Amino acid sequence: MLLTLTTTHQPATDLGYLLHKNPARVQSFLLAYGTAHIFYPEASVRRCTAALLLDIDPIQLVRRKGEALSLEQYVNDRPYAASSFLSVALAQTMGTALNGHCAQRPELVNTPLPLEATISVVKCRGGEAFLRRLFEPLAYTVTITPHVLDEEFPAWGMSHYYTITLTQCCRLSELLNHLYVLIPVLDDEKHYWIGDDEVEKLLRRGRGWLETHPERDHITSRYLKHQRSLVREAIARLVTEEESESEESGDPESDDEVPTAAGTEAAQEQHQSLHTLRLHTVLSLLRESNARSVLDLGCGEGKLLKLLLQEKQFERIVGMDVSYRTLEIAQRRLRLERLPSKQRERVTLIHGALTYRDKRLQGFDAAAATEVIEHLDPPRLSAFERVIFECARPGMVVVTTPNAEYNVNYATLPEGRLRHADHRFEWSRAEFQTWGQRIARQYGYSVRFFPIGAQDETHGSPSQAVMFSKEQDA
Q1: pLDDT at 372
Q2: 80 with 49: CB under 8 angstroms?
Q3: Which one, of 122, 56, 116, 50, lies nearest residue 88 by Cα?
Q4: Do residues 276 and 246 touch, judged by C-beta distance below 8 A?
Q5: 80: buried, middle or exposed (CB in 10 Å: 19+, 13-18, 0-12)?
Q6: CA nearest 39: which of 93, 87, 75?
Q7: 0.70 exceeded by the pTM?
Q8: C-beta pairs of 441-449 under 8 Å, 24+ apart in sequence
Q9: Which residues form the Hen1 N-terminal domain (predicted)?
């Protein structure tokens, strides 16, 4: 197994300080199942690469006293394809960097560096699509090279093995923690017994990114070898930690990059996240409308629903989402089974798509679609418009979406790339206002636009909102 880490940060040899490994010499570490070697194929001021080569003894893997041995135990991919063996080796040989410590150069620990990680061979039965679903939401540029099953027999087709390269400007500890968790997730196997301590490891290594990862449940299940009780415990705690981080600690929202421009969103959101600002903007507009019944369209994991429940004004609250999984998380977040009966009667979760007419959406005073429309394919947006503004036709509708102009303030977001892997489009302020004004004319609503977040003088605010109010004579 081979993992390489490369940086072009200058001087690039600073990588040696972070890894606590001298570029001038090879270091070897004896492990229970083989030997790990760390060396530097290149180490110059402009470019430095550290390599972790894990040499596994396949015989040693299966030698257990009193066990019968089979051919399968000897003939397998365990010594060659990246797996939990590599994660353990990473922790044992690069533990200081993994934990984000550097005594000699502490300023490097929190410095985003241009980093490139290459894993020579990984096994992934989910194919390229699953590889991208794991790494692209973490803002990596992912390069994937598939391998044929046998080069001498190309007719046998492609294998489940890939070489992957991940590129991003980030802290080294972030990259290493992502690899530590996701390498065994790709392999969907572990070479050691899984217990309660593995949940603690997952929560520690996944803190700050796993809580909001689109594949959180899939990652958790695979990491814990599909042991249901452990998976349920881990997901419940991840949901709780996500609430705490987004609503109390003021960390930046999970699906947007953190801007570096001083005096803009970064300074303000040390105390309040952009996502929280969105929710409270929507809540404030709903309060203004004097609505008694509210639809949360694309309610996700129930963050807005939780705020609505705290307001006595809203007597009937319905959350709708296309994903059963997120509705289950919303139910846990709201603790519906523990609510008093009168409170419980106020809120309903329903499964459905926002692009199909649904009588359940009719008869509401107000509706909100918070960061929803950008997840729809443009051809399906017109269906959403008809469902909401023609069929359901609530008295007031609030819609929020990212402001594409503001993306230049995100240092690690490549030019032309959208903020989130699942976004189908992102609009400028002019495009959003053109859309909103057309909707208002077409369906008989008045319209008002609002910025969300601290405004950049040139590029506006990071998010934008529109409020449609039904005209009385419509």
Answers
A1: 93
A2: no
A3: 56
A4: yes
A5: middle
A6: 93
A7: no
A8: 442/385, 442/389, 443/385, 443/389, 443/390, 443/393, 443/468, 443/474, 444/470, 444/471, 444/474, 445/389, 445/397, 445/469, 445/470, 445/471, 445/474, 446/471
A9: 1-238
